[in-house]
Design goal:
The protein has 250 residues and is an alpha/beta fold. The chain is built from seven helices and nine strands; from the N terminus they run E-H-E-E-E-H-E-H-E-H-E-H-E-E-H-H.
């Protein structure tokens, strides 16, 4: 079935989640900016209930791990049937398995995915999924951090939210996106607002000066300092370390 275009003629960005818990969606994706964009048709969200592809009277989707061990593993045949069903409707969307062993999710990947037609996301459960379906369906594995959750639904929401806010028309002041953390290989500079003095902590005077050049320089230096202190692992856009770039501003 053809997808309905947005009011400006663009096709909506489409997120499809393969999950055992479709009732978890849209969840937080249905409120705030993502929810408003969903209602406006800038993006769409659908779920595929994995249990519908399960086997036997109980619609089983898992079985004991080969070689023994604790827990259960999601079956390759069940997942492949669900994936093939989803791909028939979204043949061009990348297939992603949310996995602790995947490549670390970052702003660069969010921009890459948001510029495409959408995503097919497999939210795993139990001890994981049969390796053969990962290989057989050429899944890309992505992790949102070095920790383990009960399932892939929350990581799917994180990935979707990070992509949706980058879509045209979602954030009113689009220019602000370029100043956020990670957009230039740096953490974002500190932000302040009223009151001018709070509990003896004043807003830095330069931010009240009205001198836009000095304000830009202060913000750049602050971003470099914070990045050097907190995330020295981040790649500097100019090919130099954040520490070296911070020294230039001293």
């Amino acid at each position: 079935m053809p997808h309905i275009a947005t009011s400006d003629g663009r096709q909506p960005w489409r997120a499809t989640v393969l999950t055992l818990f479709p009732d978890m969606f849209p969840g937080p994706l249905g409120v705030s900016l993502a929810g408003q964009a969903l209602e406006a048709g800038i993006w769409t969200l659908s779920t595929v209930f994995l249990r519908e592809f399960g086997l036997g009277r109980h619609r089983a989707v898992d079985d004991t791990p080969a070689g023994g061990g604790a827990g259960m593993v999601m079956r390759a045949d069940v997942l492949a049937a669900a994936i093939d069903h989803a791909r028939a409707a979204e043949p061009d969307a990348p297939l992603i398995y949310l996995s602790p062993r995947g490549e670390p999710f970052n702003q660069h990947i969010a921009r890459e995915l948001s510029s495409g037609p959408g995503v097919l996301l497999l939210a795993g459960r139990f001890e994981g999924v049969d390796e053969r379906v990962i290989e057989g369906r050429a899944m890309r594995e992505i992790s949102i951090g070095d920790y383990v959750l009960s399932g892939g639904e929350l990581p799917a929401m994180v990935l979707i939210d990070a992509c949706v806010r980058l879509l045209p028309g979602v954030i009113g002041a689009a220019e602000s996106l370029g100043e956020e953390s990670f957009e230039q290989g740096l953490l974002e500079y500190p932000q302040y607002t009223k009151p001018r003095d709070w509990e003896g902590r004043p807003i830095p005077e330069v931010l009240l000066s009205g001198d836009h050049k000095k304000i830009a320089e202060w913000r750049r230096a602050a971003a470099l300092r914070l990045t050097a202190e907190r995330r020295p692992d981040l790649a500097a856009p100019a090919g130099r370390s954040p520490q070296a770039r911070a020294k230039d501003k001293r």
